[in-house]
Design a protein that fits this description.
Layout lengths: L15 H9 L3 H14 L7 E5 L5 H9 L4 E6 L2 H13 L6 E5 L12 E7 L8 H10 L1 E12 L5 H12 L4 H13 L3 H10 L7 E3 L4 E7 L2
Parallel strand pairs: 1-2, 1-4, 2-3, 4-5
Antiparallel strand pairs: 5-7, 6-7
């Protein structure tokens, strides 16, 4: 069966319809696992300043603060509609003092080198036409010794696997939500593509692994 090629989707989901559809999808289990896996890599000696790249509607920062209230999270996105819903979500969670939202391009961040103790990202890479640029910036703004923790969708090997994943994980979703998930899987990177990028920055290939039937994870300390 023919192997799937990468098909790009829009870099910015900046209509309120798309943002609302995304925010209404049940990401709770995926977000919970992301938070637990990230926090399991941290130590008590680590700093508390975290950058969340491609925060969407701020679901990950809100969930993280539920696990570790000491965290101070800067959460960035390029979509105003996502940030608008994120602002409401943060206010509803009473976390305005812990989470700061900003409209920032992940490929051209305004932050100084080593500005953050840790940099995290969940499902932004598949939106970026040239993911190398995003990786470069996330690594740059992480301090030495800081944890970089990136997770995203994994492009399936073929169309049959893709459709089965949609059936399993979005079978009860709306047609629009199913299409969003399908397009995202098409736009995702393969494990080999992610490893090629991280190796180019001096990381070992073993820092990238398949972490679920539809995700890869890059987890490493900046040397």
């Amino acid at each position: 069966m023919q192997k799937l090629n990468r098909i790009l989707e829009p870099e910015v989901m900046d209509t309120m319809e798309e943002a609302t559809e995304y925010d209404s999808m049940d990401h709770s289990r995926v977000n919970e696992l992301f938070c637990q896996d990230f926090l399991s890599k941290k130590t008590t000696a680590d700093g508390v300043n975290v950058l969340d790249v491609g925060t969407g509607t701020a679901q990950i920062p809100i969930a993280l603060c539920g696990y570790e209230p000491r965290l101070k999270i800067t959460a960035i996105d390029l979509a105003e509609s996502m940030l608008s819903l994120g602002t409401k979500n943060i206010k509803n969670a009473n976390l305005e003092s812990a989470i700061t939202l900003a409209k920032v391009d992940s490929k051209k961040m305004p932050y100084l080198d080593g500005s953050f103790d840790h940099v995290i990202s969940n499902s932004i890479i598949h939106h970026i036409p040239n993911p190398y640029e995003c990786f470069k910036e996330m690594i740059r703004v992480t301090k030495r010794g800081g944890l970089i923790f990136i997770r995203d969708l994994l492009r399936p090997n073929n169309q049959n696997v893709l459709m089965n994943l949609v059936k399993i994980h979005a079978g009860d979703a709306t047609p629009k939500q199913k299409q969003l998930f399908t397009d995202s899987l098409h736009a995702a990177l393969s494990l080999e593509e992610v490893r090629e990028i991280t190796i180019s920055f001096g990381f070992d290939g073993s820092t990238v692994n398949q972490s679920s039937d539809r995700h890869w994870t890059f987890s490493a300390r900046k040397s």
